[in-house]
Amino acid sequence: MKVLNFLSRHFALFALPLIMSSGLSSTAQAQDQKAETQNAPVTIEASDFLEWDQNKGLYLAEGDAIAVQRDMRISADRLEAQYDPEQAGREINLMTATGNVYFIDGDNTATGARLVYDLVSSTYSVFGKNAKVTSPRGIMTATKKIVYDESNPAKGKINGIGKANYTADDGRVISGDEIIAFTNEAGDLQTLDAIGNAYVRTVDNQTATGDKVNYDFNTSIAIVTGNVELIEGQNVMRGSRAEVDLDSGVSRLLSDGQGGRVTGIMVQ
Q1: Positive or negative torsion for Cα 250, 231, 213, 130
Q2: CB-CB contact of 67 with 94 (8 Å)
Q3: 194: which strand partners?
Q4: CA-to-CA distance for 34 and 53, rounded, in angstroms?
Q5: Nearest-5° Cα angle at 68, 63 to 71
Q6: What tens digit of pLDDT does each residue of 21-61 get?
Q7: CB neighbours of 147 closer than 8 A, spacing ≥ 6?
Q8: Burial 173-185 (b: 16+ CB within 10 A, else e)
Q9: Which of 19, 42, 112, 113 could disulfide-link to 126, CB 3.0 to 4.6 Å?
């Protein structure tokens, strides 16, 4: 087996020609960026050792490992970069980071116990009970994993699983057992669904709970359905569906239309 080992107590470095995905703001920019980075090198460094297994198509870095390409940077205790050894170009198709992961992709950052970056599908997944993805507009956390899918530059998808929580930069909060959100070409969130034990909180601390929350970022309207409760201080209203305007603070509670009634407890 042909294995190339780099052993050092100091940092060891090598650069590789790769095709990598980097957070893009539009379809045209995505195409231009991919063309520009077609032959851009990735620098990988580590404090313990670097290993290159040419038979398996695997680069391994351990000990404060770092991989950098343009505005993409991954740091972790251990890094693995894989490519197809049957192809002459050695184009990396998968990167796995383990232990104290910190990932920078343009304006977004991700942290967790483990990161899997699929360069072919432009998708990365961050795992761990403290998984977190931070963007200029807000923060998403989850206790199992967060998947960021950029395979369609016109409609990116973010999926948080396990007590997922999204906190916007203005203090609005939406949470649930699972969150599914979609972005536009500019990377701005457009819609967000919180599913299971769903919760939404406005900036003035009005809250709504239910089985599901659908939030439209363009209208700032949250639709809450299933066992809905609207809570403000000691006041509680219950129904089957609520429409919450997070800009105006106005909430509207509706019945199920099948004989169920809307109820409220108002404390003077």
Answers
A1: positive
A2: no
A3: 179, 213
A4: 27
A5: 145
A6: 333 344 455 545 544 544 467 888 999 999 999 999 999 99
A7: 123, 124, 125, 157, 158, 159, 161
A8: bbbbbbbbbbbbb
A9: 112
